[in-house]
Write a structure and sequence with these properties.
With about 90 residues, the protein is mostly helical. It has a single domain, classed as Fe(II) trafficking protein YggX (YggX-like). It contains 3 helices and 2 strands, in the order ββααα.
Length: about 90
């Protein structure tokens, strides 16, 4: 049986995550209030941020930046692309 949550990002009930996707209190909040669909949206946003800002995920400053962006993406104003970001067109 799939677990349902009321997703704060999608503003609807949807399939929840199988386990907290991130350590600590933030990971638990995401597990409790974010759907699998919204988590997948974050993974795409995170990849874009890493690529556009040329972040090294092993760098503590980059990890702190991504954590702030993740919290904002789900529970705040949202995560914005860099000012000069242009999405790729096919």
């Amino acid at each position: 049986m799939t677990r349902k949550v009321y997703c704060v990002k999608l503003q609807e009930e949807a399939e929840g995550l199988e386990r907290p996707p991130y350590p600590g209190e933030l990971g638990q909040r995401i597990y409790d209030h974010v759907s699998q669909v919204a988590w997948n949206m974050w993974l795409q946003q995170q990849t874009m941020l890493i690529n556009e800002y040329r972040l090294t995920p092993a760098d503590p400053k980059a990890r702190a930046f991504l954590e702030r962006e993740m919290e904002s993406f789900f529970f705040g104003r949202g995560s914005e692309p860099p000012p000069d970001y242009e999405p790729q067109t096919e």
